[in-house]
Amino acid sequence: MRVLREDWVRRSLGAALLLLAGAAPAQALIGKPAPDATWLHPACSGTIALSGPEAAGLTLIGFYASRPDLLDGDWSYLDAIADRYADDGVQVLLVTTADGAGAARRAARCLAFVDDAGMAEQEWLGDVDAPHGRLVAVDGDGVVQFVGAPGCGVVDMLERQVSGAPDGCWEGRARSWRAQLVEGYDDLASGPTITLLEPMVERAPRDGLLAGLLYLTYATKANDAEAARALRDRAIAAMADAPRALAVFADLALRGDPLRPEVWRALRAPLQDAAARAADDPAVQLALLRALVSDRDDRAAGRLAMTCHKRVCATAEGCLDFAMLLAGAETPMVYHDLAGGAVARAVELGGDDRLVAAARYVVALRCAEDRSAADAALAGYLAGQGELYRHNNDAWYMLTGLATAGRFDWFAVGLVECLLVDEPAMDYFELDTAALAMFLVGRADEAVRLQEAALAQGGRLEAAYRDRLARYKTYQALSLR
């Protein structure tokens, strides 16, 4: 019997997050004394103290020794924070390699330090991955107050600190929930997720990740357009002075809810304002580019693509995001050279082999309009994948994983089309995956037909299947008007 995708059992909120909570904690623990800082070697003149009478009221440290390329995109964000809160006793330190010190020195209000061996980062963060936090805040007593990522609650934490109302207990819970929600979001039901996230977003209104997840829960899981609209408007207003947070929110909203015109129309102007104020922040530039592409404004998108492509292609992840954005344009053929060059650059930067293969397929299919080249790219990908059911698993995770959702939808369609060649042999969960893939590339009629078949064949007891069918029918009715 064909094996179901690994997430076929819909776990409860509590069970999913208990499982995820088993991850090893980082060394810098909120509410605990910070690790020793004698490892810091100045890359510029000056010394620092993290605690004691000479310490700043709060020190925000960005760790980039293992990924100095990420500092190329974060330095302007951190420099703006250092400038904004300098009079409130906040200092910002950037810890990177000697090769990355050039980017650190561009941040005029920050201090740069070298950690070539990466020992400091390992001591402070352990094996924490970038989405869960390269930033650590330490108060004047040497106690860790925050561990997180750019755009994800940093400004809210700083506001509480400078107003004299720090809340280390809440910061610790929020950090844990951010990590766990990123890893397990697809498994969670809408009701408990909304109950969890609503008060968190109220407490951290400029946390782009939490607000983005709450928006997606309203818009795609609960299919509640009114609640999604209200949350989106509230987030845009709250993040007017936080460009990176707005970019994190907009990225999730635009990728996860790509067929609702009001989303990109509401976000376009605020993102243009944010991009003007954060011209060196690739996350903000990419978010604006996504809004322009979604709005089918090829002229504005083309201008931005030409001016920002070097900046956003400093990392392999940025290269692939840029290429997939352009491949999703209304006239992707005009971006063939830019998109193809970005994929080639991702290879040079050590991009994930599977995602590079997926990107090659999409560029060949959409930008080059070369079906034979696309088929060859897909065949090369599938050659190493083994059992047929992996087509379904890979497509599902491409469509629903927070890191890939909205980026590789056309590749997921290619995977499910391999299964649809023998549609009568498909299991109901495979039909469910195929329906989602078709829906996300705008093929609502096929999505409805396939989802109805999934329900008829065995998915009748799956509430999520019924919710998805209702969503597809809503868009199908709108497209027929």
Question: How would you summarize the topology of this molecule?
Answer:
Blueprint: H1 13-20, E1 41-42, E2 58-63, H2 68-85, E3 90-96, H3 101-106, E4 111-114, H4 119-125, E5 135-139, E6 144-148, H5 154-162, H6 168-184, H7 190-203, H8 208-221, H9 225-238, H10 243-256, H11 261-277, H12 282-294, H13 298-312, H14 316-327, H15 336-348, H16 353-367, H17 371-383, H18 389-400, H19 409-420, H20 428-440, H21 444-459, H22 463-479
Parallel strand pairs: 2-3, 3-4
Antiparallel strand pairs: 1-4, 2-5, 5-6
Describe what this molecule looks like in 3D.
The chain is of the alpha/beta class. 60% of the residues lie in helices and 6% in strands. The protein has 22 helices and six strands. The chain has helices at residues 13-20, 68-85, 101-106, 119-125, 154-162, 168-184, 190-203, 208-221, 225-238, 243-256, 261-277, 282-294, 298-312, 316-327, 336-348, 353-367, 371-383, 389-400, 409-420, 428-440, 444-459, 463-479, and strands spanning 41-42, 58-63, 90-96, 111-114, 135-139, 144-148. A six-stranded mixed β-sheet has the order 1-4-3-2-5-6, sandwiched between helices. Helix 2 links the parallel strand 2 and strand 3 (90-96). Helix 16 runs antiparallel to helix 17 (371-383) and helix 19 packs across helix 20. The radius of gyration is 23 Å and the shape is globular. Residues 1-26 have low confidence and may be disordered.
